[in-house]
Write a structure and sequence with these properties.
The complex is a heterodimer. By secondary structure, chain A is mainly alpha-helical. Chain A has helices spanning 2-44, 49-54, 60-69, 76-88, 102-137, 142-156, 159-173, 185-188, 197-203, 207-244, 247-254, 259-296, 302-312, 315-343. The chains are: A mainly alpha, B alpha+beta.
């Protein structure tokens, strides 16, 4: 009996394992494709990073010396395979500009970006769903009309412009929040541990620093929320409107269930899958999409690092950032797909 | 749960309250003064043997010192780490007597041997500043407090190159070198040991480099001199302008003349003018087509609307009058300014056999307003001559790459040319020597090659008498002007927005945006 049970359990795990390996394989294929495409594109663009790295007054010999040091004098296929082997060993090369290992730079700058991304993501995800549900539930209210205008503006206005407007109103004029930058570690004598100002100031037990770190986040996070909130709100409203028209909702109302219970426990649960899918895609976008926000708010994260890399045509950081964003994108979407059956019981059997 | 929530709210409220109470400006006259400088980009490295852009100069010039320096706001050389110097009779060897009692930030003393090691390191690293040492044959230390530099060829302008060669601590090289890195490049990339008035405190990458006054500096800090410097990064110029207006930053870097005009209207902001040694030029590629003919190039130069370009800068530029910026001499300044003359241009074009016009490509930098304005202006101006201009706007890496090959270079482009030393001949050499054509890594983007002109330019630095050298330079300047290798667009003023209350100068010989804070004063 015990042996039969064990065999059954092992048999049920096998498809899962196969599925996991299959998904991992596809993740590797996606990452390899992204790396290869970015590598090829970066070499196709007519620019000379060695010349940029050597400096304005560098003579031809100096430029050639820098080219040799950077390995840019090697045949293209050799450069590609060297890079690929490096990626396998978790060595993403050195920045042409800073000469520092790119992996170290990524770990240094990613936390500051994640701090913004997580704060923005959870804010607009919650607000988007809540306002989307309210909009669907009360479509003719004044609030619905306001939301209609706000979401159109959110989609239409460039995030860069939103950031500048927020700075003018809330930082330059009202002086409620810092205009730019995040926590100045040296000024507040906070030790750099995680790279997230809020966490590091709490770890140091430094309340003024924590307060400043929070205030510094408000405007960049708001800019990101405004630009993303519209999509999640409109999608939540649309799927909820569809769900509220379904027969099971009419049946529930006929059974005397409360509107609150019908909206939250019946309709919302079924309406969430498309919204969650969109949120997953948006999260991946946010990592790359913070570039403009980080530039406007002088936020020292991966976006600003990417901006400088693009500006100076620094190959390796550009490739590394592509890898990080691709992996995050794939992982988040895998996690989202795992959530579907939890939210919709009809998918559990598939 | 409710208790925890209450505690969290209390914590947040308390911290916000404390921050509100603790925030405020600095710079009270009896308190330490911090100068906050904002730039659009941060230096990629702190190594002064590699630094060669305005992003890095502002760090290097405040933390490191050379044997001599430029007197602020001028192109005159004055002693710095070297108290005095002698030149050998043959003009090849310069012997510098070092100042005694000078300490590096790591506590070591300045010695002759140490200075030799620092200068040799620049040669061995062989990047940016090393280009100023191409003519150096040997560096020795004749005594404990002396350093001697011998040149391969006579160069009476060599002293002007020395402010660009920062002296690092030899003890730091020794302490941080490894077998794989004998020049301690890794260490100097993110650490510093100079003799300058400010030493590196912290570097929060992509955000700010914090410098503090060096307690053992060999000169006194006068009242009003900053005791700390923050070099922060604000990639968006609009953000930096708002920070300046709100008083959060004191100085800005990388502000073009178009932004200076805007800054002039801001409350609590002044525009600090410094002597300018740079010019904006539009090199014409002489290697192909109608531009081979000097009459065609002259016609194009005559068709250009110089006044429109000056008007674009709203008072922060003046019309140019030739290859050299006017600051180099009074005679150069008195040359006639270029003016538009379309009729004369049409006549010249007809003479050259191009009365019906032709097509040209303008390659400009994407994202910089004046590059785009200049492109549109020349497109409109040349239309009157029947010349059709195709505008191509690309990022800098692509633009540099396209001019690194003759077949991909455009017909006309736009460049900001800056003087890096007080040597007018070197300024001309950047753009007109055969050895500096774009395909050889230089900024001779008209690709003009003439051995006779090369000899004249190279010969300037070998004229011992300063007045005689300047006369010869003026003659070469006039000769180049007559070749119409470029349109000499404007000479922008070096005018940077600075918080009211500060006095000082930007260093035009350091790519315009660098400033030595030891020479600034705050009287606000």
């Amino acid at each position: 009996m015990t042996r039969t049970k064990t065999l059954t359990s092992r048999n049920s795990k096998l498809p899962r394992l196969r599925k996991f390996i299959n998904r991992l394989w596809w993740l590797l294929v996606v990452v390899w494709t992204a790396v290869t495409l970015t590598f090829v594109l970066s070499r196709l663009i007519p620019a000379d990073p060695a010349r940029l790295a050597a400096g304005l007054q560098a003579g031809p010999e100096q430029v050639e010396e820098v080219r040799r040091q950077l390995g840019l004098d090697l045949p293209l296929n050799e450069q590609y395979f060297r890079y690929l082997f490096g990626v396998v060993k978790f060595d993403l090369g050195n920045s042409i500009q800073t000469r520092q290992p790119v992996v170290d730079d990524i770990f240094k700058y990613l936390p500051a970006t994640l701090e913004l991304v997580f704060a923005a993501f959870f804010t607009y995800a919650i607000l988007g769903i809540v306002f989307g549900v309210l909009w669907a539930r009360f479509p003719k209210s004044l609030g619905a009309k306001v939301l209609s205008v706000v979401t159109v503006l959110g989609v239409a206005l460039p995030v860069f412009w939103i950031g500048l407007i927020l700075q003018v109103i809330f930082a330059a004029n009202l002086k409620w929040f810092p205009l730019a930058g995040n926590l100045p570690y040296a000024k507040y004598q906070v030790e750099f541990v995680t790279g997230m100002g809020t966490i590091d100031s709490l770890l140091s037990g430094n309340l003024p620093a924590f307060g400043f770190a929070l205030k510094a986040m408000v405007l960049p996070v708001t800019a990101l929320v405004i630009s993303q909130f519209a999509v999640s709100t409109r999608l939540a409203r649309s799927t909820m409107t569809d769900e509220l028209k379904r027969q099971y909702v009419t049946a529930a109302r006929a059974r005397g269930s409360s509107e609150f219970k019908i909206t939250i426990f019946d309709a919302l649960r079924n309406a969430l899958n498309p919204v969650i899918t969109m949120l997953g895609l948006q999260f991946g976008w946010l990592l790359g999409g913070t570039i403009l926000v980080e530039v406007v708010f002088s936020w020292p994260g991966l976006g600003l690092y990417a901006f400088n890399a693009f500006r100076t045509f620094d190959y390796n950081p550009i490739l590394a950032i592509t890898i990080v964003i691709t992996i995050t994108f794939v992982i988040v979407n895998e996690l989202v797909s795992l959530l579907y059956p939890k939210l919709d019981p009809r998918l559990r059997s598939q | 749960m409710r208790g925890k929530l209450f505690k969290l709210i209390a914590l947040l409220s308390a911290s916000v309250f404390i921050v509100s109470c603790s925030s405020g400006g600095n710079n009270a006259s009896d308190t330490p003064i911090t100068a906050v400088y904002s730039n659009i980009a941060e230096t990629a490295t702190l190594d002064p043997a590699i630094i060669f852009s305005s992003d890095g100069f502002v760090f290097a010039r405040n933390v490191y010192e050379g044997l001599v320096e430029y007197k602020p706001g001028t192109v005159e050389i004055q002693p710095l780490l070297a108290e005095s110097w002698e030149t050998s009779d043959d003009g090849l060897t310069f012997t510098f007597n070092l100042r005694s009692g000078v300490k590096f930030h790591d506590g070591s003393d300045l010695t002759g041997e140490g200075a030799v090691a620092a200068l040799k390191r620049i040669q061995d690293v062989n990047q940016g500043p090393a280009s100023f040492m191409a003519n150096v044959a040997s560096i020795t230390a004749p005594s404990e407090n002396q350093v001697a530099i011998t040149l391969k060829n006579v160069d009476y302008t060599f002293l002007g190159k020395l402010p660009k060669l920062p002296i690092v601590s030899a003890a730091a090289i020794e302490a941080n070198k490894t077998d794989a890195d004998p020049l301690a490049k890794d260490w100097f990339a993110s650490n510093a040991a100079g003799t300058g008035p400010y030493k590196l405190d912290t570097w929060q990458r992509n955000q700010a480099i914090n410098l503090v006054a060096f307690e053992d500096y060999w000169r006194e800090f006068e009242a009003g001199t900053p005791t700390a410097v923050t070099l922060r990064v604000d990639p968006e110029i609009a953000t930096a302008m708002q920070l300046l207006e709100s008083g959060e930053i004191d100085f800005m870097g990388a502000v073009g003349p178009d932004d200076s005009a805007r800054a002039q209207t801001m409350e609590g902001v002044q525009v600090l003018e410094s002597p300018s040694y740079y010019g904006q030029v539009m090199p014409m590629n002489v290697t192909r087509g109608p531009l081979k003919d000097v009459r065609v190039r002259k016609a194009i130069a005559l068709a250009f609307d110089y006044q429109a370009m000056v008007d674009f800068y709203q008072g922060f530029a003046e019309p140019s009058n030739g290859p050299l910026p006017t600051g180099f001499s009074e005679n150069i300044a008195s040359r006639p300014r270029y003016e538009r003359n379309v009729e004369e241009a049409k006549k010249l074009l007809a003479e050259a056999g191009y009365a019906k016009g032709f097509e040209l490509e303008y390659i400009g930098l994407k994202g910089l307003s004046y590059f785009e304005f200049a492109g549109t202006l020349i497109e409109q101006n040349l239309k009157e001559l029947g010349i059709k201009v195709k505008q191509t706007l690309i990022p800098w890496p692509e633009m540099a790459a396209s001019y690194s090959k003759r077949d991909t270079a455009g017909d006309i482009t736009f460049l900001n040319m800056s003087a890096f030393t007080n040597d007018a001949g070197a300024y001309l050499g950047q753009s007109y020597l055969s050895t500096n054509t774009g395909d050889k890594g230089g900024y001779n983007w008209s690709f003009y090659e003439d051995a006779k002109l090369d000899a004249k330019i190279n010969g300037l630095s070998q004229i011992a008498d300063e007045a005689e050298r300047m006369t010869a330079t003026e003659a070469v300047n006039a000769e180049i002007a007559d070749l119409f290798l470029s349109i000499y667009v404007t000479q922008p003023k070096l005018a940077q927005p600075v918080k009211a209350g500060w006095t000082g100068f930007y260093d035009s010989l350091d790519a315009n945006y660098s400033i030595r804070f030891f020479y600034t004063r705050y009287n606000g």
